[in-house]
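Much of what follows relies on a compact textual record of a protein's fold. The record below shows the convention in full:
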Amino acid sequence: MSYILDAIHNLVLQTAFFNLDPKNYIMIAVACGLLYLAIAKEFEPLLLCPIAFGMLLVNIYPDIMLSIEDSANGVGGLLHYFYLLDEWAILPSLIFMGVGAMTDFGPLIANPKSFLLGAAAQFGIFAAYFMAIGFGFNDKAAAAVSIIGGADGPTSIFLAGKLGQTALMGPIAVAAYSYMSLVPIIQPPIMKLLTTEKERAIKMEQLRPVSKLERILFPIVVTIVVCLLLPTTAPLVGMLMLGNLFRESGVVRQLQETASNALMYIVVIVLGTSVGATTSAAAFLNWTTIKIVILGLVAFAFGTAAGVLFGKLMCVLTHGKVNPLIGSAGVSAVPMAARVSQKVGAESDPTNFLLMHAMGPNVAGVIGTAVAAGTFMAVFGIM
């Protein structure tokens, strides 16, 4: 009888109820809230589902992220191995290849002025950098935090790892992916505040057709130019352009389909779950994380506002031919930000079709954020 009682006693003590801190329950509630947004509200479920579930797992069973060094038997937790692929910049680079294979760069090629809108939206990154310095972060940590303003999760993970800010990688990645998911909520109020009803209703001319030769040369030329100027951007820009070359060349259909489907979704699962698993209560519920979340939101808002304001300037210079709303798509959230530009424009005029015009700045924003990351690495002498 005593054997049975001892067995039951040991079993009960092994349950998570006896091993969790009250803060873990707060994070479990947050994870459930994010799952609700992903499933019930469909806020980018491909991102939020794995992130939220990783958050749920690590706060119920913290050892799932146990490092090899801290393990008694030399075997780390399952998600620790996933996370190493983030630190080594493998998963962010593969994500970029998948994005390139999925994305049509034609709108950017047809309207090269979109590069200016994509560049303007990066203002939020550099504004947040100086704000982060004011918040007490050192220069490298400030750079890693500020890149959230580009609304680009893979680049945020990549830069944090390259700058040696792995302690901040979890909060930075979660903030970046959360803001990517919440683009439909965050951007519209800023866009409407900075534009008039008349501006939002502007219809843009149809984009010119882009030849196959242009589509093939674009990723090659961009890779050569950008990577010669900033070689450290090669893992991101190179993979982005390689994926797009798969798409546009027309001779490696199997590679394009794999990169944009099976491989892309596998990487999203592994990356999202491991990023979510960095949000243990001990690592996440502190003032540093709160400051990162605030700075990320400010950076994202500034980037959106800068893109819209530059769009207004282009509207004036072109005598009303550019709808300022497409400037908000200059952040890197592809294709969510472009869809938001379309949605807000359609609210003013249901016959207005801005999606393809907004994809130009959206793609430019992806390149621009990678360039911003490369600029920070060059400034700090990181190779």
